[in-house]
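Run log // design_07
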């Protein structure tokens, strides 16, 4: 049986060897030979061990850096998602407030429109009642009787009916018409009332504005 260390035993350069024999293997001169490690081999083994430790350390550091980068990436992604969620929440809040404001404005407009419609109906009814009461067929219709002729504005001014004057002007009553006495509604409004009616300052202001602008003539 050939000893596995036979090449070493036959190597004349390896003169430093130690022989260990057991009682059963005395006839096997190379059975328990343990070569003595040379300084070069010890240095090589030391360098190999140091290189292995260094490589293990580098691999560990590389793994730590990768994990650190992954942790940093996860943190950044978490912050990005939080900021995105906060921005979307703020946008949703602003949108909801805008919708509520639009609904409020629309509701206000609707209420105002309904109020104006009611007021318009009421005003038309009031004007219709006034014209019918005094026997006028229209806002610019001239009525003639034993006292002469006059227009609806003359009657409204004579009665100091501010609402009737305003509605007649709004309906297109002319301010330049004259009664039998030759007075316009404005001239009549400036005269003191002889029937216990209040002075017509408000009516004068309405007629002055209508005459000045010409939009209601």
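design_07 sequence
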């Amino acid at each position: 049986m050939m000893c596995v260390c036979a090449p070493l035993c036959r190597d004349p350069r390896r003169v430093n060897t130690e022989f260990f024999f057991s009682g059963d293997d005395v006839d096997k001169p190379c059975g328990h030979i343990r070569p003595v490690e040379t300084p070069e081999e010890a240095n090589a083994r030391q360098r190999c061990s140091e290189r292995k430790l260094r490589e293990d350390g580098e691999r560990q550091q590389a793994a730590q850096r990768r994990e650190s980068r992954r942790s940093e990436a996860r943190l950044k992604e978490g912050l990005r998602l939080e900021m995105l969620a906060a921005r979307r929440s703020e946008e949703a809040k602003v949108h909801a407030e805008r919708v509520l404001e639009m609904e409020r404005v629309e509701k206000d407009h609707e209420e105002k429109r309904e109020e104006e419609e009611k007021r318009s109906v009421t005003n038309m009814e009031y004007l219709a009642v006034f014209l019918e009461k005094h026997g006028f067929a229209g806002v610019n219709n001239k009525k003639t009787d034993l006292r002469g002729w006059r227009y609806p504005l003359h009657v409204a001014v004579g009665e100091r009916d501010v609402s009737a004057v305003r509605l007649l002007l709004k309906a297109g009553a002319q301010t330049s018409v004259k009664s039998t006495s030759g007075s316009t509604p404005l001239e009549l409004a400036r005269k003191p009332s002889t029937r216990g009616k209040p002075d017509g300052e408000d009516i004068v202001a309405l007629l002055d504005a209508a005459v000045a602008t010409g939009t209601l003539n």
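The helical segments are 6-10, 39-133, 152-158, 162-170, 185-190, 201-213.
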